[in-house]
Amino acid sequence: MPNFIDRRLNPKDRSLGNRQRFLKRVHEELKRTIRDQIKSDKIIDVDAAHGVPIPKRGADEPSFQHSRTSGERHHVLPGNETFSPGDRLKKPETGAGGGRAGPGRGENTDDFVFALSREEVLDLFFEDLELPDMVKLSLRETVSYKSHRVGFSTVGTPSNINVGRTMRNSFGRRMALRRPSEKEFQALADEIAALEREEQPSPQQRHRLLHLREELEVIERRRRRIAYVDPVDVRFNRFERQPLPNASAVMFCLMDVSASMGEREKDLAKRFFVLLHLFLKRRYERIDIVFIRHTDEAREVDEETFFFSKQSGGTVVSTALEEMLRVIEDRYPSNLWNIYAAQASDGDNANGDSERCAELLRGSLMRLCQYYAYVEIIDERESEIFGSTDNGTSLWRAYRTVDSAVPNFQMTRVARPADIYPVFRKLFARHQPVQLRR
Amino acid sequence: MARRPASTLLFDGSEWNFATLSRTYDAIEAIAIGEMGLDVYPNQIEIISSEQMLDAYSSVGMPLMYQHWSFGKRFVFESQLYQKGYRGLAYELVINSNPCITYLMEENTMPMQALVTAHAAFGHNHFFKNNYLFRQWTDAGAILGYMDFAKKYIAKCEERHGLNAVEEILDSAHALQDHGVFHYRRPPRLSSEKVTERARERLEYEEQTYSDLWRTLPTAGGSSGIEEVEREALERKKALNLPEENLLYFLEKHSLILEPWQREILRIVRVIAQYFYPQSQTKVMNEGCATFVHYSIINRLFDQGKLSEGAMLELLASHANVVFQPGFDNSRFYGLNPYALGFAMMQDIERICTMPTEEDRDWFPTIAGNGNSMGTLIDAWENHRDESFILQYLSPAVIRKFRLFRLADRAANKFCEVTSIHDERGYSAVRAALARNYDPVANRPDIQVVDVDLLGDRQLRLKHVIKNGILLEESNRDATLAHISRLWGYEVSLAGIDASTGKVLYECSSTGA
Fold it and tell me: What CATH number did the domain enclosing A349 receive?
């Protein structure tokens, strides 16, 4: 008799530590990959698991290996059908002879993709943005659900058995199938016992006893065949996870797509939008995203077009705001929707239009919006000049007036990914009594 | 068809529980020990889930292993293959230890559990306990204790010296894993835990009481000069025991820059590599032995009426999968299947012993018709490794069965040439070539430490003996050299010298970081 040990309940994640070490090892490489992926992903997809190719650099394990392209070897292979000694076979283009390299150390991992979890992706994403830990924590939080009773089900765990319902089914089935009841059974048994007690039974009694015994046997057999509680009777309480009630939110992404917005500017803008989306996702069950791009005219577009297609023309920012107002009136009544807006621009605007923008915001938009964030994407060199002054583009100066008048309007200049967070600081510091200003 | 009485069946259906497992184990044991005469370590059978099997895969099958990123990489790789369905998991995993630990997967059906119990807990187990390589080179009783020590020691080093410092040493040590093995002399037995504990305490004491002052004391006969120094150098070289093929051992003992804990880590990697050394030399025999044992046992169980026909059919299907050998031009071909080759050879030995043909009497006069197949097999399992086993026992019948042929492959030529096939003239050549392919010495680059100029530039000189003109893969070679020089601390040079002509084919070096 050997020693049997059941290890199935032992912790499974013995390799987790090793996996983390591996991720750390290839961290830089992964970060680049994830950034590239986020650039091309949809905003809503950032917050999910990603597949990334195993990075080659930093993860190779060298050892002395025989080179496959030198020297002389003798292979022995099975399955000879047609060859005789002296036959010559042309070599395949790569590798030598017939044998293929099995997997092992130094295996080719070029086309091999592994999955990073949502947490790992977010970690890599947050690293650039330099979010405070508290914020990271709250962003990673997933929505809570509550279980509600919803009817019954035929499958479930024993702890969820609904006894009342199960017994009712059992009772109905027993009646329908005429399962002899305990009472009948007992009555018969009693009568038999009484007859058996008779010292000198008459022939009728003996006959009756025989008859009763047969009957009892029939009853017993019937009771055995028709179960008291059959699996078909069993009912379980059914629970359904329902998200905690939450209002819906709509997020407007506004971006200037004129020629002055290059690859770098768009990348920064995208991160800005992603961050706002992550935040909203934490708080709202349902989020719609509306993309509005503008040059000298604005249009609602899909995400692909928003980030990747080029358009030429001047820049009139107010058209985007008007388009946004139109969409809100059309589809997102502010009593049903929480409206968030994020605008990214390089600050260029047509003469005199900036004032109109500020007017639109103060007059109507800010009354509808929960929150409005504006980032102006500037050159890294400019960031030193403009630092914190009130000078700047006309749009910046116009928005300053809104900023000082409306509490839930935020604006900042962004030159590096790390600059993005401050614009959201107020959002994340929501529960703090003191409102932080930049 | 006569129906067997149900009562003799060990189990019915595919569900298993510990009662059926244990009943089946006893029936298998009765056959393995009582009828076949196998000799095994006590068994410890553990049930694990597929996740745990993946975990075990990535830590080279050991139940305890220190932490390193490369295991994480392997884990990611294996779990991906598994999840994508490219590869199934093994049904079992067995560890050469005393007691012999066998892992069974919980997903296995009951017939499969019976099969793998016979395969691992008796087949592999018998081989581990009796094969001369395992007996000489590994210490089954001490390995688990040693792994426990290694894991704790490395964790402690990480705490004291930081993850990165430990990782660097492990990276370098892993690069030399294949060169951390004594190929020709028996390694010293693993000292018992107490002894290692004491040695470590001594090292720690030395570390604490070390004083740099002593080093600056002038030597006694200061002026007697250069001759003295040279003589000392010669003596030192002799003491270094050069040439040395175990690079890790050499670096552990003689590196100029390593601290005691770093040497201990090299030692750990070396000991583990040494432990696995016999396994790499006995793949065909080990799997062949286990497959032969499970095949014999399940047939016997069936004959005894302890297996139902359904279960037997399942097992035969699974057995046929295991010993499947596609031809070289088949898309599923991944080299010779050690299960197939080993099993076929052992079945053939059984046939030669009991029903020899004229040909067998010519080729195997000593065993043909001796009527004692089990004794012959047990003797072969005990005294051979793959190379010698094939050289000794590969019969023309098996060569014909596999239709083996020998292919000469010269890198300079655009073609490969068929030099021998499965015919009268080819048997010996095919057999010799196949045996040679299983010879670890032929398949591993032969690299040795040949010289150290300790008084000069302290350059460590390595020699690669090139056989059949097979060079080293260059990027890997340079990266590995860099690892050696990291461990050595000074320049390391490698010269490739042709074994037949003595000509130097290449030279390269790496300076210490």
Answer: 3.40.50.410
